[in-house]
Design goal:
The chain is an alpha/beta fold. It has eight helices and 15 strands. It is globular.
């Protein structure tokens, strides 16, 4: 039996204009209401897969490793490491996880690998029994970031992962560690080598879309983020992957959508994609 569960981590707030790129505020503010500082609230949602005795966690969210000043800057309100609390609600501890799949190593996707901030203490690497899977190009980018995105990476985390002897760098579409039910797609529009995991399910595969499609509003092809390194390339990658998922009756899992964890997709006669049959954040699927 394979069980998939959405697992909420700490939320964050980011500038709405940055999140919606060239979309005017008059439009995006109808979708997600900004606060007085123009920030929108975003989830950092992980996906837990329990499969034949293996416990696989796709991403760990932003976590609670930031010092108070940076928590305030990025709108991380929760003091506790919420992902660990969410796992505990499912009867699991971080020591129970066998694999952590990281789409890329930006702090809002990988920061949850670190313990919560405590004054005078250096955060420690969590999930001590897991192997950490990350794409080769994404790992290289984290090691040698560009000036534009170097603030998005955590040097301490990079060092801890490298020293763990449990880091697995992926450059193929599948890995024998997980088997043929797990297929990787690689995208470069947001950041080099972002690794998106497609999980086979009888009623249609599920794609962990990471920052290619952070939420349902970003399904529309022209909508990209100001954080993306190559917007036109991302649009082309998104179109190709959405067509693929539509052809196999697949569904999209959203890490940053504040409301929806999962949806089907549809395409109209003008070629526009949209989300349908959205499931909210307490999703749990079994087969």
């Amino acid at each position: 039996m394979k069980t998939l569960s959405s697992v909420l981590g700490n939320s964050q707030k980011l500038d709405g204009g940055a999140m919606f790129g060239n979309v005017p505020k008059a439009l995006w503010s109808q979708w997600l209401q900004p606060d007085p500082e123009n920030r929108i609230t975003l989830a950092c949602r992980a996906l837990l897969v329990e499969d034949k005795g293996k416990k696989i966690l796709l991403e760990t969210g932003i976590g609670s490793f930031f010092e108070p000043k940076l928590k305030l800057r990025y709108g991380v309100i929760e003091v506790r490491h919420k992902l660990l609390d969410s796992l505990a609600a499912l009867g699991l501890q971080h020591e129970d996880i066998d694999f952590v799949i990281l789409s890329h190593l930006h702090f809002d996707h990988a920061g949850g690998l670190l313990s919560a901030w405590q004054e005078g203490q250096t955060p420690q690497l969590l999930f001590p029994n897991a192997r950490y899977l990350v794409g080769k190009e994404a790992w290289n980018r984290a090691q040698q970031p560009h000036f534009r995105d170097r603030a998005s990476f955590i040097q301490l985390l990079n060092n801890l992962l490298a020293a763990s002897q449990r880091l697995v760098v992926i450059d193929t579409e599948t890995t024998p560690l997980l088997g043929n039910d797990y297929h990787f797609h690689f995208s470069n529009g947001h950041t080099p080598g972002m690794m998106l995991t497609e999980i086979a399910m009888p009623e249609g595969a599920i794609l962990f879309s990471a920052d290619l499609i952070p939420g349902i509003n970003w399904i529309h092809l022209p909508i990209t983020m100001g954080y993306d390194r190559a917007a036109e390339q991302l649009v082309d990658e998104k179109q190709k992957l959405l067509k693929h998922m539509l052809s196999i009756n697949g569904r999209i899992f959203y890490t940053h959508d504040p409301r929806f964890a999962l949806s089907n997709i549809q395409q109209d006669d003008k070629g526009c994609f949209s989300a349908v049959n959205g499931l909210e954040q307490m999703m749990r699927l079994e087969h």
